[in-house]
Amino acid sequence: MKIRTVYCYLGLWSVKIRTISAGLLESxxxxxxxxxxxxxxxxxxxxxxxxxxxxxxxxLKRQSLQDYLDNLVExxxxxxxxxxxxxxxxxxxxxxxxxxxxxxxxxxQLNQLESTTVEKDLGVYVDKDLTFDHHITECVxxxxxxxxxxRTYQHLDCNTLRTLYLALVRPKxxxxxxxxxxxxxxxxxxxxxxxxxxxxxKDKPYEDRLQALNLPSLACRRxxxxxxxxxxxxxxxxxxxxxxxxxxxxxxxxxxxNGFKIxxxxxxxxxxxxxxxxxxxxxxxxxxxEVVQAPSLDSFKARLDKHWEGxxxxxxxxxxxxxxxxxxxxxxxxxx
Length: 336
Known about the structure:
Layout: E1 2-10, E2 13-22, E3 25-32, E4 42-46, E5 49-53, H1 59-79, E6 89-90, E7 114-115, E8 118-121, E9 124-127, H2 133-150, H3 158-174, H4 177-180, H5 185-195, H6 206-213, H7 218-234, H8 270-273, H9 276-279, H10 281-285, H11 289-292, H12 297-307, H13 317-335
Parallel strand pairs: 6-7
Antiparallel strand pairs: 1-2, 2-3, 4-5, 8-9
């Protein structure tokens, strides 16, 4: 099998052509890479999905966004890759949104885009209020269906339940969690129910069941996942346009920190407070320098697990933070 990739420039458009040859068969895949050039707004593309973002506060900006949509229609017509207009939707975000109307086509009435309040994007249901309540509900429903099948097993021991749970249930509860975390109460109840499927454990406290199954609580796993994401951002593992966090200038604030201390911004809404750049600040800033300055991602995970050893079965996130901060202060006092 031979794979060749060729970049071609045809007039104003550029395409990437990849040919895959296997015997007498040859397949040609065409990837369009110039679509964002037709739109000056923020554009995100993945596979055959395209999202355009714009902040519209008046009719002038509304017309500007409409012009960009017209450019997309012209682009699709030139390449004969027409959009499926009925599947194109508009989501209005913000309490004071004017909810302007938009269209993709020559007729503003016949080609008007439908407004939506909830839309599934790459496996995550996004709602106009950014609460992700609909997504959590769907996750819980899907996970409970799988648990209903697992409970039909007549003989379930710890090893069998753990294997089935990790393979079939927990991925449904954690997919895309960096986006919608920390709304975990209903998800933790699913794991509570799962740990009771072993008859010898059902009468024990939840933390004891987790320890017997060697299953960390979902709250602790979310804290660990947030810390890993922050490490990737602060150590250049992601190539992004802008960081969701802001590091503290050590020269401006010569205080004792771990070398990658994050500036905590004031939040006036719960949506902003639940954002990664806000909710993960305290846990990250409480980590010692030998953890956050790990040379690789794998070593960071190992050092983080060792530093938080003993907290993985806790369900109270605030309690975990309090114990972590207390331990950090105790270690600092002992060092001094």
